[in-house]
Design brief:
Bound molecules: 5'-O-[(R)-(carboxyoxy)(hydroxy)phosphoryl]adenosine, zinc ion
CATH architecture of the largest domain: 2-Layer Sandwich
Helix content: 40-55%
Strand content: 15-25%
Number of helices: 10
Radius of gyration: 20 Å
CATH superfamily of the largest domain: ATPase, nucleotide binding domain
Distance between the termini: 27 Å
Structural class: alpha/beta
Number of domains: 2
Shape: globular
Oligomer: single chain
Length: 322
């Protein structure tokens, strides 16, 4: 079995996944409450919390799987992209476990991890397919040709879709992280109430910064009481604009690749309007849309492993090299 470890942002996660793709356990300790008062993730606080949580979370993942380290054949860990201080905690833990147990270590790219959610049992998807990866840090349109990687067809020129949700939620006075809050509130509002612009950029790229500014201007015009009355309408209209942009790009990409199958992964894949706007698409299971370690263990199945002492000098990276 593969022990997966993920600490790229504000979730400390560990999972046990079989080489066959069966998820035996997936434990995610969210730090969201710790960062909520700052309205976003504070990197230094995240690193310190990962340090406290990583051992108990790994132990919980093994316990949940009814497994011990004797059952683990490889350790898969997120190497990047993400917060370097946060990544280093998971990477160091993985190196220590691998070294102590004489196991190979598989460094995993977080974005490949999100895509590899789709390769897990009980309903694995086989490439080729066209994939939208929409998270808090990235928004990419991908042509996935095999299990080991992908070609980037388009990406956001500014904010990621999840970031647009989070910043929008902040403007509306909602909690952090904002995606799920907007999703919930939008159900009580009218998506037609406001007409927010969906940026038109060339090719298959996306842009969300203009949309965020449009929401800012709309909110500024309202008094406190008016904002209370219109908050749900604003949330619904704002969400509609993001979903339209994502759906439009994914459909255009699928036309370009000719792939019959489209898929959506990443935290924003949890969005209920996006899910119903793409009834034919494959979505990551709800529990595995936001960051988790089962996806990292899944990607490790298809990535090259390193043996001791080769992995000991491995460093984390902040930005994607893909
Ligand atoms: O994949 P993820 O956990 O972390 C990154 O790799 O960035 O994605 C987190 C993002 C956050 O921006 C969060 O607001 C968004 O996913 N998100 C949602 C929903 N649930 C989480 N966005 C829209 N609707 C949701 N239901
Ligand atoms: Zn992620």
């Amino acid at each position: 079995m593969i022990l997966g470890i993920e600490t790229s942002c504000d979730e400390t996660a560990a999972a046990v996944v079989g080489e066959d793709g069966v998820v035996h356990s997936s434990v995610v300790a969210s730090q969201a409450d710790l960062h909520a008062r700052y309205g976003g993730v504070v990197p230094e606080i995240a690193s310190r919390r990962h340090l406290e949580l990583v051992s108990p979370v790994v132990r919980a993942a093994l316990d949940d799987a009814d497994a011990g380290l004797d059952d683990v054949g490889r350790v898969g860990v997120t190497q990047g992209p993400g917060l370097v201080g946060a990544l280093l905690v998971g990477l160091s833990a993985a190196k220590a476990i691998a070294w102590a147990r004489g196991l190979p270590l598989v460094p995993v790219d977080h974005l490949r991890g999100h895509v590899a959610t789709l390769y897990l049992e009980p309903d694995p998807l086989d490439p080729p397919f066209t994939c939208l990866l929409a998270s808090g840090g990235h928004t990419l349109v991908l042509a996935v040709r095999d299990h080991t990687g992908f070609e980037v067809l388009g990406s956001t020129l500014d904010d990621a879709a999840g970031e647009a949700f989070d910043k929008g939620a902040r403007l509306l006075g909602l909690g952090y992280p904002g995606g799920a809050e907007i999703d919930r509130l939008a159900r009580e509002g009218s998506p037609e109430a406001y007409s927010f612009p969906v940026a038109r950029v060339p090719g298959l790229d996306l842009s969300f910064s203009g949309l965020k500014t449009a929401l800012l201007y709309a909110v500024r015009e309202l008094s406190e009481a008016e904002l209370d009355a219109r908050r749900a309408d604003l949330a619904a209209s704002y969400q509609r604009a993001i979903v339209r942009a994502l759906v439009g790009r994914l459909e255009a990409a699928a036309d370009a690749t000719g792939d019959g199958v489209v898929a959506v992964v990443g935290g924003v894949a949890a969005n209920s309007e996006l899910r119903s706007a793409l009834p034919g698409a494959r979505f990551a299971p709800l529990s595995l849309c936001t960051d988790n370690a089962a996806m990292i263990a899944s990607a490790a199945r298809f990535a090259p492993e390193l043996r001791s002492p080769g992995y000991l000098a491995l460093d984390a990276y902040a930005s994607s090299s893909l």
